[in-house]
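Two folds, back to back.
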Amino acid sequence: MNSPSPSQTPHLAAHPPKRLPIGRWILIVSVLFTIYAWTFGPYGVVRQQRTAQRLAALQIHNDSLRDRLKSLEDSLHQLSNDSATIAGEARRLGLVLPGEVAVRFVDTTLVNPAKRP
């Protein structure tokens, strides 16, 4: 009967300490760090989502460049093999065949801003 009675130790029975053992603190901190690293770390969800968005944008850009390349290849093929296309482009640039005369029309209805009355 050496144990103290509740009446002899009222301060111990009233409010037990609310401290967490060090092992629980380590566990809580580890879980929080794991969640943070899983979300924002180098292989985290946020970074993977941003990488996927950049990849989709680059794929769209790559597709548009591929279409442009195809168009330019078609133009190159026409300009090197189709005589009608070559003649049309030469005339657009103002070139003429030997014996032809080139005539350019100038629009005189435009008012020159430097010569205003």
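---
second:
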Amino acid sequence: MRIGIDARITAYRQGGIASYVSHLVPSLVAIDPETDYRVLCSRRAAARDEWGENFGRVTVWTPCHHRWERWALGLEVGRLRLDLLHSPDFIPPAFGAARFVITVHDLNFFYYPQFLTAESRRYYNDQIDWAVERAAHILADSEATRVDLVRLLGVAPEKITTVPLAADSAFRPLPPPHVAATLARYGLLPGYILFVGTLEPRKNLPGLLSAYRLLLDRNATGAPLVIVGNRGWLYEEVFARVEKLGLTDRVRFLHDVPDADLPALYNGALLLATPSFYEGFGLPALEAMACGTPVVVSDKGSLPEVVGEAGILVDADHPEDIAAGMARVVEDHGLQGQLGQQGVARAATFTWEETARQTLAVYRQVLAM
């Protein structure tokens, strides 16, 4: 059997789906030395990945999220004679393989259409119904997304398998000297409040900034707020809110941070705040927990099931509640230690090996149809 995996997204974006693909492929390499795989890579991607002998790289020209993507990619992959094609970025081609598996990470565009650009809304809204119908099976990152697929799109429950993601093994408690050396390069000292993620509306950064302002006004903390992430879309309100709240000297924006520096940045934080309106999974929360950093997260979407009892849940719609959740951690050293220990233990239950095993089981199930 020959399986294709669409990895084009790794050449276009960082984080999220790109991280998922970048970890899934080598994890499959480690557990499946027999199946014939073809990994579809963008012509823009550097040919630096080395996989097992049964994993062949195929360069394709069709760009991600192009208006003619379904048909153009189908024409490119048709020559590969694929028994199954896995599309980790929602939308499969219209043809080109005998069967299709897709991963749906979230359906936030149904809940918050105003948080997407008009082009992105058209891309997903015009195709998601077709995609879930076209797929022989659907992978969902979380139970929250699985429930959304059933409730919002009427997908049969037996057609969906929940396969959680995991944190990279690099995310772990690190020696203080190593952390301090990395922080020094950014002009930071340990003990800041941290946010990690793309600057986009559903991350609720304006709400986090308002909550942070409340903490400062109440003298609950003097810690700076460090925002790690690149500009995504509709991000202008974030910078406007910083100016409006008088936080220019209190907030640090770090863009284009190398992946290798992220573990130390998590380790150096007093807490990670992720008050998102919606997350299909929420990898930064899991990465922070793996580093032993307390997390304060929204009670929406998948975040409650990811953090379990190892984090503080807050109402993303109310900055007052976000501030109260952060204050609990800032003011209680015992709680900091407790959440740190619980987070490490919780994160250890998620592994990329298990993600790959469950994904491979779905491939084999579909191929046996």
